[in-house]
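Researcher: Please translate sequence to structure tokens.
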Amino acid sequence: SSDVCSSDLEYRNAVALNFIPRGETEPDFDPAEVEDMRKVFELRQKGKGDRAVQLLERMHAENPTPHAAVQLAFEYQLDERLRDAASLYAFAVGEYPQFLRAWQQLAAIHFQLANGASDRDAAGDEVVVEDDPVDHYAEAQRAFQQAIGLGLVNEQNYGYLGLTLLARQRYIEAETAFRSALMMSDVDKTLYKNWRQGLVQSYFKQRRYADAAAMLGTLIDETPDDPKLWLFQGNAYIGLGDAQRAAENFQIAYQLGGADAPALLTLGDIYVNDGLAEDAVDRYLAAIELDAGKSPRVLRGARSLLRLSEIDALRSEEHTSELQSRQYLVCRL
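Model: Translation complete:
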């Protein structure tokens, strides 16, 4: 975002980092390039950011080097020109394949673009790309793996690599990446919870419902008031064929105010099978109210609701008005 380096001091620190030797993961500077970079620094220090960008663009046009490309890409990132920046980072790693810093930034940009980040052109207008030909998740995966292979081994790279692999439906590799991230993560950090939830998703995608239920049990112990965790664990129990435990989870999520329409419909189905007609009706109606009849599953629940009119318990004289009322709601749907 544009506030990554909001002050001159932060910018000077970022530029200074460019001149710290990093061994084989950074190309060498030539003396003329260093002098031009100092001019860029001075222009920035004087608050002449536009002129600094113009100088970098001239440098890249006249004598394109990996360092000039990366510094210009950094400037473009500040202006949210993500695709322009990605092109420059790609040039830099093409010229010097071990350029670790460029790989890291390239991974971040592709991950952002894959997740709908806004992009701008040189005029500052938002760029809208229909049917983007670039597979940004694939490019992010490649860049994250290159950064890790070059030695930038940390929880963020492994964790975001895991999310990228999930999006690409490479679930076993995603599991490995999340496990690596968890090994490096501080248990008190928010990221630690994110990586565990990512690991749970990889279990679901592999139909490893017992592993998912166990991991979710740990998460529920830590945050028992999170209805989403109860829902996810309920779905894991459905996968295991344990309808009763699933019903318990969905009911808790319902009491916490976080049950969605699919969970309520499933809960209604379970109650129908158990002969709990009135409880089933309540859950079906709650699902219909949430979903407004837009889902085929809601319509299936409505049909089940109508079938309940045949249940003897609801056909007794004392339930006649209630039954008619519920039938009327379904007919309206």
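Researcher: Any highlights?
Model: Residues 85 and 245 are 51 Å apart (CA to CA).
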